[in-house]
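Aim 2 progress update. The chain analyzed this quarter is reproduced below.
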Amino acid sequence: MTPRPKTGSKSDRDALRHDMTAAGCSRADMVVEMRVRFRLRPREAWRHAHGWTLQETADRITELGFRRPGEAVAADASLVGKWEKWPGPSGRRPSLAVLLLLAGVFGCEVEDIVDLADRKALPESEQRILRHSTTALVAAGPQPLPVPPSPPAEPANPSGQELVRTAAEESAGWAQAAEVSNVGDIALEQLMADIRALAADYLTQEPVAVFLRTRRLRDRVFALLEGRQRPRQSADLYVAAGYLCGLLAWISSDLGCLRDAETQGRTAWMCADLSGHNDLRAWVLSTRSKIAFWDGRFGDAINHARRGLAHQPSGTAGVLLACQEADAWSERGSADEAEAALNRAADVCDTTTGTDEIGGLYSCPEFRRANYAAAVHTRIGNPRLALREAQEALASQPFHAYGTTAQVCISHASTHTALGSLDAACEALRPVLALPPEHRLDTVARRMRELAESLAHAPTADSASARTLRDHIEEFCVESVPCRFALSAREGQD
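Predicted structure tokens:
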């Protein structure tokens, strides 16, 4: 017998919404019924009354914020869930700007999405605003300014010098409020230093641990953006948010979560666009090119890489973008285009004079360029060129990242396989097989599967050494990070 769903399950909510719609009930009626029947918080009840997921709601909030000047909010599913739970211990207080956007998305008044518990937990200043009409709240804007000094009661319509003095007092009151900022230059400097540390740590440390630290720092930046700061400081915060969301996008793709990576990439692009920061734009487009590549969308990967180069970034972003274009062309079997893109990467490398603002993951030293070159030459049928790139990088270039090093070793093994030297391929792959499971990124596991497929079609495919190596590769991939993620997700559903 199929067990009955728990009260308040998705099927319960969907059935209630369907029945009430058929009965001609309003959305507000549905909210009341859901709150009473399923004991939901007001914002969660409004979302379920619309039948939206957390991510669908986040997308609508972000879109509406863009259409309202000065109210841009980069929402995601996690943040919407926290706004719904507040003032509970796992919640996060929505600002008045967020409440305005939520009300706009749900098609109701702000008063409809807050209850007594919300009001008690709000700061006194925000409670005073809520006690006024919704019109007053809208006039207050994304972050309400303190009310400027009121003109004297007498005379009611000042004239002469009194008129000029009153206007000056009003301007002074506004200027005093506008000077207030929730972030200073030292704090912004520290944020960028923290981002540089994360980008460097990701090259050597466990990806999930760096992901968690990055997420916490992103949440801090988002919270600061919900407050008030000077325009220059807001732009700097958008730069910080863009780099952090870009880092989350890159890590998400390395963990095998490409759809979530694309969502982070879109938010990172929004931040780059709002800040007008060309280097950030280039790195975000590089990240999106990487995601599209591993998602099999090679045309998108090429377009993102070319758009990134068009922003003429300083530092080594241009090298990586040209390499990524070559990578995508090689997967499409376009050898001439791939070689031309590799030549552009070499030219950019030779002519680059600027430095990378962040470094670490957001850099493309010679070792990383050689990794792409070796992989591209392997795919387009130039194993000897690929072998030279891989051997020179492993012998002479400084270490860049365990993931990059693993891929160079895989290219090294692939070229030996193509040249018929199976023993040399086994030796080249030894450092990769020794990687701990938490360092077996999705990109590395996919390259290993490609190598296994090449082994299966090689002249030595039936040899004992080839079969043993394919078994080792299969064991490696089973213990990769994406497989562990998938297993933990299934266990959570049991």
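Residues 1-5, 133-155, 489-494 have pLDDT under 50 and may be disordered. The radius of gyration is 28 Å. These observations will guide the mutagenesis experiments scheduled for the next reporting period.
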